[in-house]
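Give me the fold.
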Amino acid sequence: MRSIVADTASQRRICHNEKISHAKSVMPRPQRLNRLTTDRAMSSHDQIAAILGTEILKGVHRAGDNMPPEPDLIKRFQVSRTVMREVTKTLAAKGFVVSKTKVGTRVRDPVHWNFFDADVLAWRVRIGLDDEFMRSLTEIRRALEPAAAALAAQRRTNADLARLRRHVSEMARSGHTRRSFAETDLAFHLAIGVASGNPLMRSVASVIEAALVASFSYSSPVDDAENQDITVQSHAAIVNAIEARDAHAAADAMLEVIDVGVRRIDATKKKRGAKR
């Protein structure tokens, strides 16, 4: 049986056949937000995992149901049994499926799905982030990022401060696109995680990334000069508090940054609704 050749042509063919159009993606993706981009080059294994993972998220394969038999999937994707079994292992590692002898591969309940996994978040972004999921992203950010900022205030080094100041300066420059501003914004928040000195804080990068992709798909600070200035100043306030080693102020400033983004999105939605 002919295997998929992992080159550009076959990547396009699989995505076309499975009706997953990257050109019609629901939101723009900053260039360096690599883990959540769906237009990056992928191996045949990654493509198939993405297709099946997306189908599970959409409910094509429901929780408690068996996935299609392995021979059917091999025929569908024109790959070897080895590749198909590796795909199944990948989905199992993400909590999507469980395989049992004489039972087959069964879709697990959504409570087992690992939404901290970068691939899972990428698949979720691909099918669109509804209000409920965006609220979940905001809630987890509000729970974790202020704590990271507070730790950064206690543990930061001069190098951390210099790095954060550079990111704020980059955010303030003119001529940003939505994409370039999102890259800089992400870099700032990841630098906070580094300054916190806690490796687990750095591991939530995919959640921040997804939140920024979602947020900037609705509205970006660069769409309005005043909004860009407000965003820059609110990020600068975090750095000022970290420099002063004021953990409480750093946490409060981080909350304000997150909430400013939420308010900007809500205002954009209301404007769009009023025009209809």
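The two ends are 53 Å apart (CA to CA).
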